[in-house]
Amino acid sequence: MLIQVYTQKMSCFTSNVYLPFSSKVQVYKPCLSYQFINPVQLRFLSSVKLSQPSIFSRQTLNPVVASTTTETGATVFEKPIPSFRNKNPKDINLLVVGSTGYIGKFVVKELINRGFNVIAIARERSGIRAKNSKDETLRQLEAANVCFSDVTQLDTLERSLDDLGVPIDVVVSCLASRTGGVKDSWKIDYEATKNSLIAGRNRGAKHFVLLSAICVQRPLLEFQRAKLKFEADLIKEAEEDSEFTYSIVRPTAFFKSLGGQVELVKDGKPYVMFGDGMLCACKPISERDLASFMADCVLDKDKVNRVLPIGGPDKALTPVEQGEILFRLMGKEPMFLKVPIGIMDFAIGVLDFLAKIFPSMEDAAEYGKIGRYYAAESMLLLDPETGEYSAEKTPSYGKDTLEDFFQRVLREGMSGQELGEQSIF
Ligand SMILES: NC(=O)c1ccc[n+]([C@@H]2O[C@H](COP(=O)([O-])OP(=O)(O)OC[C@H]3O[C@@H](n4cnc5c(N)ncnc54)[C@H](OP(=O)(O)O)[C@@H]3O)[C@@H](O)[C@H]2O)c1
Question: Which of 51, 55, 173, 212 is the most exposed place for a label (fewest CB within 10 A)?
Answer without folding.
Answer: 51
